[in-house]
Amino acid sequence: MTALTLSTSGAATLRADALVVGVAKGAGSTSGGLVVAPGAEAVDKAFDGKLAAVLETLGASGAEGEVTKLPAPSGLKAPVVVAVGLGPVPAKDDAYEAEALRRAAGSAARALKGSKKAGFALPTESAEDAGAIAEGALLGAYAFTAYQGGEDRLAPRSKSAGNDAKLPLAEVTLLGAKPRDKAFKAAAERAVAVTEEINRARDLINTPPNDLYPESFAAVAAAAGKEHGIKVQVLDEKALVKGGYGGLLGVGQGSTHGPRLVKLAYTHPKAEKTLALVGKGITYDSGGISLKPAGHNETMKCDMSGAAAVFAAVVAASRLGLRVNVTGWLALAENMPSGNATRPGDVLRMYSGKTVEVLNTDAEGRLVLADALTRASEEKPDAIVDVATLTGAMVLALGNRTFGVMANDDAFRTSIHEIAEEVGEASWPMPLPADLRKGMDSPTADIANMGERMGGGLVAGLFLQEFVGEGIAWAHLDIAGPAFHEGAPYGYTPKGGTGSSVRTLVRLAERTAAGDLG
């Protein structure tokens, strides 16, 4: 993992492989529009006040995420300066937004892959700024290399050896931070805890399905629980049969890897509220008998991203010692076609006792979530949030970078949306139109797992709502778009698993602990 340190050293005296500074687009500068951001004064001085002019000569514009490398002048101990764009200069008296700092730090960290140490001299006016920069740098430095390099991949990085371009930036040093200030120290510690868990979620999402299946995922959760003081309970196939978890069993029965329901319980002795998080954990989704068409199977190892996010959020809450009880439910199954697989037309009896006619076995996520939602509701939490890569319809509606938020309570839905925007995760509130419920009426069972094709993401939300306990505030996050990024990396977002929604869930837990959600 990339290390993080807060330093009082000046940018000119820091010994590192590179110094990261911010530049922005702004009118009124003598260089014609490019502005050197606060924090880079010493570096600009080393360039005789001409850093902006030199960067413009090299084509830099200050656009968000733009990275320009140039050799450092003799007045600096670091040999390389990395200028990263922050976008437009803020209005007078306004600070740079946290997300702009987060993305800039992430872009710089990615550009420094293979380096041992970099000093980040980005605008740091507050502990919140330092936390955002730390988050961005630590997330941007992520690399999934577990299946690369053969036996050498586990060897420690030699101090005498050259830089390894496959390895992430080894150390991030925040300049302008205050290591003895309680607020700055707390912001740094929080950033480390949250980003390490996000990166753990990314690792799980990126792990190939021949190595990550329900039993092995449950083992990872159990090991983490032991390490962080979280009580973990794993229901295997026998326990699921005994308990009547028809949704999980029905989805998982076509695979040689049996399903699991994992409960992670973090408790605080002074907690006044309990938050339940439920994650869809389809470790591989072939579509089952309703087989996915060619071209849609290759990334289906990511269909457990919701469970990975829930797992990461519970561990992060424990590491932060939040004054709230957080229970995570991981609904784990592998959806495969075989002679034992559930068929379209089969009827499953769910844990709640309701029967579901399966019209499409590729609408499996809602089946495993239904059992987990019912079980979570039995414990009467103050609120339930489920997270799932649930529908392609949500991707069509919101694109690849925004997740949808549905809820049975308008105020709770608004709170989740606001929290997501606050932490830099794009989301959008979505309705649950009552008229779409009729499309799931079944002549055979209590409800069908499919309804109208149009508005399919909302139909899925309505299905899940049927399994939430009465009187419990509930929200559903459909992260099908942002959970797995297939394009080129940008900002702090890598190619592959992203860890989408973890920051939202952690901030929700923090807000709940502080009593801000009522």
TrEMBL record:
It comes from the Bacteria. Its main location: cytoplasm. InterPro entries: Leucine_aapep/pepB, Macro_dom-like, Peptidase_M17_C, Peptidase_M17_leu_NH2_pept, Peptidase_M17_N. CDD domains: Peptidase_M17. Coiled coil: none annotated. Residues 360-367 form the Cytosol aminopeptidase domain. Keywords: Aminopeptidase, Cytoplasm, Hydrolase, Manganese, Metal-binding, Protease. PROSITE patterns: CYTOSOL_AP. Mn(2+) 1 binds at D285, D362, E364. SUPFAM superfamilies: Macro domain-like (SSF52949), Zn-dependent exopeptidases (SSF53187). Belongs to the peptidase M17 family. This is Probable cytosol aminopeptidase. It comes from Streptomyces argenteolus. The lineage of its organism: Bacteria, Bacillati, Actinomycetota, Actinomycetes, Kitasatosporales.
